[in-house]
Amino acid sequence: MRRFLVGLAVASQAFAAPPPAPAKPAFNRLSRPDFNQKAQEHFVPLFWRDDADKNGSLEPAELAVLWGPQGASRATYVDEKGAFTKAFLDAYEAMVKGWDDKALPADEQKRRAAIRLELSQGRPTLIETDLSKGSEEDRAIVKHVFAAAVVLEKIHARQLGAFGLEAKDPSSQSVLHRNQSPFCTAPKTEKDEACTAIAPKPARLSGLYPAEVQADPKFCDALAKAKNAKDLTGHFSVVVADGKGFKAVPYSEAYKAEMEQVATSLEAAADASRARAKRPSRSTCARRRRRSAPTTGNQRTRRGSRWGRRTRSGTSASRPTRSTTSPVRGRPASRSASPASTSTRWPGSRSSSR
Question: pTM of the prediction?
């Protein structure tokens, strides 16, 4: 009896229903505007393009991955099967959870609140180009031009004096990237001294002049009085100290390494463009097919007989009969099927007396 009961218990366990699968995470806990705003605050390069199926839930196909210093690609957040990755799940949960600054010092809490207010006064916008159906040459052109643009961003950051600056928290990193400086520029926060992506708030320095001379608010007047003032105050150059004073270094020399990278990328884009130009277009291929296709006798006749041109048989063809107004008392004068029957000819027609 005991063996029977043990066997019955084992059998019942074997045929028991499997445990329920874990519930899939829902991505409807943030509206589309809130998701895009939270993504900006958390400095994740994500944008909910549109709610295509109108179900209020973010789908992988509706997600756009943005360019940025994060260096992320679509594969970072959507796998090869079209499902969200763990990196996306972690980012989404962090956005839903929000911020908890209670453990921070009061000054830092105030600064971060001001930074988020700065971000809230703008809305991220998506500029997207779909090259999935483009040619290999088109994709290569865009790839190389994009690489050149990234280097130009670096040059621009150096000119602004923002290159090399680092913010610690995600919202401050987002402001530094968006404003291309640590300073706030939105109406409600531009005059708030607590609003800065870097604490303590740095001085406003340009990357076109030595930092030590910019401490003097009248340093521009000093440069204007120098012997080489024309060069120092000109355009397209960087002012540097040379031990004896200051000299102007042209952009082509100051940013030589970066501009060589730009030139290399643009040359590669030009090569791809030339390769595209050499490849026959669809219309060219279609014309070649029409020319090489065999023609019937009727097709040859129609081609040769338009507007009264002679056909292969030597006869004259004409335009269909048309009624017009006679210059005499408005009487209708009809044009017959043959141009030879009237003195009025169609442009380019040939009459025949045959």
Answer: 0.70
Element (H, E) at 156: helix 136-160
Three-state DSSP class for residue 74: helix
Buried b / exposed e along 306-318 (16+ C-beta atoms within 10 A): eebeeeeeeebbb
Distances in whole angstroms, Cα of residue 207 to Cα of each of 144, 150, 163, 181, 237: 27, 18, 9, 12, 11
Backbone angles phi, psi at 101, to 5 degrees: -100, 15
User: Is the per-residue pLDDT at 144 higher than 90?
Assistant: yes
CA distance 276 to 135: 8
27 band by pLDDT with thresholds 50, 70 and 90: very high
Q: How far apart are CA 108 and CA 194, in angstroms?
A: 9
What does the pLDDT look like over 180-191, one tens digit per residue? Answer: 999 999 999 999
Assess contact for 91 and 102: CB atoms under 8 A. no
**CB-CB contact of 323 with 332 (8 Å):** yes
Place of tokens 């090869």: 80
